[in-house]
């Protein structure tokens, strides 16, 4: 007897499952508000070198002071990171005669002046993370994703060992604590540490939500539940744009995006532990209690095991029989993902796909100003375009299958990124359209990979598998913001890198098995 047979008896998609999915959507909304927060937390406004006051400047306007103190770019704008060692008063007579002597140009000596018209303060303006310190600014996102990477390993193992719900609660509580500590940071070092720890905590939320919901849902509604949960990521995307637009001070912005975790903690009271996990770990009585509650909520009050499914057994006896599928004392670890040939191939290929999905997704999501739109509008549009993308995914994964959908979504993401390398910068409308299409394909790839991976691994290893793939994905997420620094080597090198990785990793997806209309595997023998 399989767990799906029990779900058919108690109702595989009724009020009980809808309540669980609805509650789990709250923490899902909160995830992108932290994962994409770097766009606004570390935004770098226009800036130039601070010019110390001199007596000779008394009768000059601010524009004239800048003209004689700061060299210009070829397009006429003032340079952000350089100044003249001495005022060039002759430029007042002819500003077009920019000095050719490089020896009179030096790096900023007295700090920077920032344009505060868009942001009251960001971590860039707080600690002058510009010019030579620009790498530290980008590294803030990398530190966060390093934390997410570590959290994927920790919570993947712990949720398989101690249960989905308890670890989800722990990760939410830690998210609130470290999120608030980040908001109270008094130094860059403190912010880097607390954002890393926030990433560790939020990784548990990201990792557990989808499997916890899907393990209560029957085969027919598995795709729907995965897509529904994913849609609320897009809602969080749009909410981030609105919250960031209203809160322009980075301390309070961190408070605003962390606070909703408290609501998720309260709502988690009504979410039961996964009955699949309880049975797989021999906790039959708790599973029995949750299954009876599910049956009552779904209108199956007279529920018993039907004789055709499992003759001569009551419910509790049937659960014990299912629980014996896991040998006494048998334990699983991340090494179990590579011990058998089929599982090894799945793990290697899915790891490559996850890396490509995350690397290209965050590469696009963290380049809000590169497509000719206002950054708040870009964030909102990037969020709203994900919803129709998910709807299309819902149709495609059920018609053409998970494998084809996964591969082509990621390949087309790379091709859209590559197209924007070729399209000239003045064609802002066309670049914006291609970027939005690329973002839609990228989100389609991300939505599919969550659903696909949770179906590839057996119950006894599902969270270990999700933890491993999430670890690989967060490596991609951690590297994505650093790739922007390659524009100093060649302006288009970041886009070329994102494009190449997406196309290559998308091609690897063709090597994975199809899982459309296939029962969720319970043990390793079901995979092999």
From TrEMBL:
Transmembrane segments: 12-31, 139-158, 167-186, 192-212, 224-246, 252-271, 342-364, 376-397, 409-427
This protein's encoding gene: Slc22a7
GO cellular component: apical plasma membrane; basolateral plasma membrane
Keywords: Cell membrane, Ion transport, Membrane, Transmembrane, Transmembrane helix, Transport
Coiled coil: none
Major facilitator superfamily (MFS) profile domain span: 87-516
Protein name as annotated: Solute carrier family 22 member 7
Organism: Chordeiles acutipennis
Family: Belongs to the major facilitator (TC 2.A.1) superfamily. Organic cation transporter (TC 2.A.1.19) family.
